[in-house]
Design goal:
The complex is a heterodimer.
Chain A (H helix, E strand, L loop, with lengths): L10 H19 L6 H11 L6 H20 L10 H6 L2 H22 L3 H10 L3 H24 L5
Helix pairs in contact in A: 6-7
Chain B lengths: L1 H19 L5 H8 L5 H22 L3 E2 L3 E2 L9 H17 L3 H9 L6 H23 L11
Antiparallel strand pairs in B: 1-2
Helix pairs in contact in B: 5-6
Classes of the chains: A mainly alpha, B mainly alpha.
């Protein structure tokens, strides 16, 4: 709202900042940065399993960082908007699509062990062979499906 | 407690950069996956390009972390789980323009609809866990392996 920061910031600022976050967490605590693990902790806690507390703190920090951009950036996102997808789908269709898409994300991330942050950024940074495979697979699949959606929607998406 | 505070700090820097890159906006992610907007690919490349050599040096020198013992990076083997799970993840990412990191930061940034894929992600995690537990009880029915 103060609009001190333009979003998106240049890649050569935000990319190294993400990379240094991975290095800093590893160098001080020997912990692997990833977001999906934080959600898994909520599930584990609800099911009475042991949890990794630091992941809740990491998630809290993630939200604080996003809030900083919300305050210092160009302003809040549209409350009920969802970009181009929200413009071509009525709300009644958009909600189930987003929910089902979310299920695929959670199921797939749990299956392959991590997500974009845990595999593509942190995992590739530590030269994890499985992370290379997972990241290449989800990047290739996401690009292929997005291009297919673009064609099927007649270029509206 | 010190580990938690360190996690909070690096969560903040990561969330700040993540949101500053626009990763919590559907249109930016969608245009990236359409190969119409290249900056986010450079964000990924520069993040890895920054972290990889530094972690390589630390590991090669046998770095002992102040709060977690000797540096032992977490590595996964290549396997079916990585590829099949990654493919399912990729479909969901393409449809929603969201990943686990973006949905919660989307909500904080005012995009209320981020709650919907967030709920789906939690449901997907539970669904996967239930399937794995069922497979563990009845190994002949399915040979799914729990991967954390």
């Amino acid at each position: 709202m103060i609009h001190l920061i333009a979003v998106p910031l240049p890649w050569f600022i935000v990319g190294p900042m993400m990379g240094l976050s991975v290095v800093g967490l590893y160098a001080l605590t020997n912990l692997h940065l990833g977001v999906t693990g934080a959600y898994v902790q909520f599930v584990d806690r609800a099911r009475g399993r042991a949890v990794e507390t630091w992941r809740f703190w990491f998630l809290a920090g993630l939200l604080l960082g996003a809030a900083c951009i919300g305050i210092l950036g160009p302003g809040p996102q549209s409350l009920l908007g969802y970009g181009a997808l929200g413009r071509i789908l009525p709300l009644g269709a958009l909600l189930p699509v987003l929910f089902l898409g979310g299920i695929l994300i959670g199921f797939g991330a749990r299956w392959c062990g991590a997500c974009t942050s845990g595999h593509a950024i942190s995992g590739c940074s530590v030269r994890s062979p499985g992370s290379y495979a997972a990241a290449m697979t989800f990047f290739a699949t996401a690009v292929a499906v997005t291009l297919a959606m673009h064609v099927v929607s007649g270029g509206r998406l | 407690m010190r580990i938690n505070l360190v996690a909070l700090f690096f969560g903040l820097t990561f969330g700040f950069a993540f949101s500053a890159a626009g990763f919590n906006q559907y249109d930016i992610v969608h245009r990236t996956l359409l190969l119409q907007y290249w900056a986010p690919w450079l964000v990924f490349a520069s993040a890895i390009g920054t972290a990889m050599p530094l972690l390589w040096i630390l590991e090669a020198r046998g770095w002992h972390t102040p709060l977690g013992g000797k540096l032992t990076p977490k590595r996964w083997e290549i396997g079916r789980d990585r590829v099949l799970g990654g493919a399912v993840f990729g479909v969901g990412w393409a449809v929603t323009g969201a990943c686990p990191g973006t949905v919660s930061t989307m909500v904080v940034a005012g995009g209320l609809l981020g709650i919907v894929p967030l709920a789906g992600i939690i449901a997907g995690i539970v669904l996967r866990d239930v399937m794995v537990e069922r497979a563990a009880r009845h190994p002949a029915v399915d040979e799914v392996v729990l991967v954390r």
